[in-house]
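Sanity check

After download, print the first record. It should look like this:
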Amino acid sequence: MTPRGRGAGAVTLKDVAAAAGVSVATASQALAGVGRMTEATRQRVQQAAEDLGYLANALARGLRTGRTQALGVHHQSAAQSLATSYFRDFLAGAIEAAHRHDHDIVVLSSDTSRPRTTAPHVDGVVVVDPIADDLRARELMELPVPVVAGEHVPPEMPACTVVAADHATAVRSLLDVAAAHGARRPFLAAPDRHSGWGNLLRDLVRAWATERGTTPVLVDTRFGERDVARHRALLEPVLREHPEVDLVLCASSFATQAALEVLRATGRRPGVDVLVAAGADDSGLLEEDPPVTAIELPAHDLGVACVERLIEVLDDPRGPGPALGTVRTVPAPLHLRASTARPLPGPAGAPVAVAGRA
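Expected C-alpha cells:
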C-alpha cells in the first residue's frame, strides 16, 4: 500500500476498514483495543491504518460525540499521596488501562478544604478511596458524569459504580485462621465511619464475633494517618484496658506497627500469646519480629479495573444508570506469616500453613 498524504484527502476509518477487509465497527474496535476478534484481525486493521497514514481526528470526534477522551482521577491530598506506593501503583494501573483505550488521565485538584470553582473537563471520574468528609470527592460524585469509586462508598455519599478489593474474602479467611488457633476476642483498629473500607472491616469483624458469641473491641482511626506515634497514643489505652484481646487486626501498616509497640510494652508476645495482622500489606511488616500476616491491597489491578469499568459505563448506550450501585471486586491475597502461625495457649485447632519471608 502507498501511504496517502494530506494532499490526497483525509483518510477515513471507512478506508481503513476496506483495506483490512472488515466492517467499520470492527476497525474502530480494533484501533481502540476493544471488542472481540482474533489477534490476527486486530493486527491487520492496525497495519492497514499505519500503511494508509490514518490518524483519528480526536478533536472532530469530540465535537461530534461530546467526549474529551480524558478521565479524571481524584484522591484526597493527591500530591502527598504520591509518597505512598499504593497511590503510585493505582495511578500506574489507571494510566495503563486508559492508554489502551486511547484516553488521557488527569489527576484532579484535591484541595479538600474548599469547593471547586469549575467542573473538570473530563468524560468521567475515578474517585480513589472515597471519604465522606472529602468535599471535593462529594462534588465529583454529584456531577452529571459517570463516576467509579475505587473502594467502597460510605452510606452518606452519593451512589455510584464501585470497584473494590475483595476485603471480605481475605478478612474472613484471616479470621478463620485466627479461630483455628484459638482466638476468640478480636481487636480492630480501622478508619472511622467516613471510610467505606473502615465500615466494611467493622461489619466483617462484628459478624465473625457474633457468630462466636463474643464482642469485638473496636477503635476508630483517621483515614490516611501515617504517624505511628499518633496511632500509638490512640491504641495504647484501649489495649491496656483489654488484656483479654487475643487477635489484633489493624487496617493500616502504621497502626499495626503502633499496636506491636504497645503489645510489647505491656508484656504481650505477638505471635505467641496474641495474634497480629494488618489489613494492608507493606514491606516493613516483613521486617517485624515476627513477620506480620497481612492482606495485600491490589492497587495496580484496582487502578486498571476502575478505568476499564468507567470506559465500559461511558460506552454503554443505556447511560450510567444501570451501573449505579453495582460492585465489582478485585482479588486481595492474604499472606499468612509467623504473627498468626502458632496456636494460642489453651485449646486450639489444627496448624495452618504459613507463608515464608520471600
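If your output differs, re-run the checksum step. Summary of this record's structure: Residues 1-8, 348-358 have pLDDT under 50 and may be disordered.
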